[in-house]
Amino acid sequence: MYVVSLSYKVPLEQVDAHIEGHIAWLKQAYAKGMFLASGRKIPRDGGVILAKGDRAALEDELTRDPFHQHDLADYHITEFDPVMVADGLEALKV
To answer: pTM for this one?
Structure first.
């Protein structure tokens, strides 16, 4: 399991210009079963994605994000093993 932390490198106006493409990309990754959750950081200086699968495949998928393609954000990937989860989230255990 992975936590992907995005940090914006540019003003929000530049990010917002590519938000529709970013959302379309997110939906495709959800459809592939790779992404489990995502959302904006608060304050809005980036975002977070919870992902599963192979790290190389995840890294490849991140290159398809319009935010990456237009050099709008930096990406930091943290791998973790969810050994404990809340009731109802047992599917997150790898």
So the answer is: 0.94
